[in-house]
Write a structure and sequence with these properties.
Length: 326
């Protein structure tokens, strides 16, 4: 009796097909004639999982994670935040100049600033002689004082008695002046440059003295006087050189006057009577009474007031300007 197969299913009897289908999910019929999906074997699951890992690894990914987009074979590195210096370099990309360019630029700027400052605000001067001892020290071939002269102070007020001032000598004061500059132009240029920073004395007949009397006042020192008088009154002489550095011929002068007698001299308006603190060794107003100004100095010739000693280090300090008239 021939058994009918309504579903049309036929068993696989070929040995080749049986071997090829081993381990695969092949549909097989159920007893009631329906097709049932065969469950994968353990061997098949392991095989499929291994194949999946190999495909993901070949793409740079990993099992259970999203595929990585890094190129295959490239080693992953940990991301490190850039340092502050690196960020600043990236933000301000500028080329650094070599030191042999920066140094001359810095020196040039410093020199220009120094020259501008000394031309307007104040200037450093070298005390050339001993006429202002003991207040200011100066001599030939010695460590002279360097002083700072305030050029702006008299823009707001006039010089007063007791001030130590630097001024340009008038014509009669220039007779004894000789230049200290070299005849070589290059050397002279360096000397002029050095005068602006106080290393070399200016090539000018600039003098430093103390104001004793101003315009309209009368100054004198006569036999019997205890010292210089202004408007008939003794002035403070506590700052002068004592004992005197030189002897005095008492036939025509006295120690109290610091030399020869003089006066009375009435100081013209807008002029100053000046004297050195080293009275017996100072060629000041007393030695120029025969000129057109009677030995006085025009206020317009005043450069500034000596405010401080800045060198040498053991002489650093302010310069006092006492009220010498009572």
């Amino acid at each position: 009796m021939t058994e009918t197969n309504p579903s049309g299913w036929r068993p696989c009897t070929s040995p080749e097909r049986l071997r090829a289908s081993r381990g695969k999910n092949i549909d097989r019929p159920s007893p009631d004639g329906r097709r049932v999906r065969r469950q994968p074997s353990r061997t098949s699951v392991r095989h499929d999982s291994r194949a999946l890992r190999e495909r993901q690894n070949s793409r740079g990914g990993s099992v259970g994670n999203r595929p990585s987009h890094r190129p295959a074979g490239r080693r992953a590195t940990r991301s490190v935040a850039p340092s502050k210096s690196e960020r600043s370099k990236k933000q301000s990309p500028r080329s650094e100049r070599p030191w042999y360019i920066d140094v001359p630029i810095i020196i040039a700027i410093a020199l220009i600033a120094t020259i501008a400052f000394q031309a307007v605000v104040g200037r450093v001067y070298v005390i050339p002689s001993e006429s202002m001892e003991p207040t200011l020290h100066g001599c030939t071939d010695c460590n002279n004082d360097r002083v700072f002269v305030n050029k702006m102070v008299y823009d707001f007020k006039d010089p007063k008695p007791g001030d130590v001032v630097v001024f340009k000598g008038s014509e009669s004061w220039d007779n004894a002046y000789t230049t200290s500059r070299s005849s070589n132009r290059i050397v002279r240029g360096f000397q002029n440059l050095g005068s602006y920073i106080g290393l070399v004395a200016p090539d000018e007949n600039d003098l430093v003295k103390r104001v004793i009397a101003t315009g309209g006042q009368t100054v004198e020192c006569l036999p019997g006087d205890k010292g210089v008088k202004v408007n008939g009154k003794d002035i403070d002489n506590s700052y002068i050189m004592n004992p005197p550095s030189r002897s005095v011929d008492t036939k025509g002068g006295s120690i109290a006057c610091g030399g020869e007698y003089f006066g009375p001299v009435k100081v013209p308006e807008d002029h100053l009577w000046v004297m050195g603190d080293n009275r017996t060794n100072s060629r000041d107003s007393r030695f120029h009474m025969g000129d057109q100004y009677q030995g006085t100095v025009p206020v317009d010739n005043v450069i500034g007031r000596v405010d401080a000693r800045i060198l040498p280090f053991n002489r650093i300090g302010t310069v006092k300007h006492p009220q010498i008239q009572s």
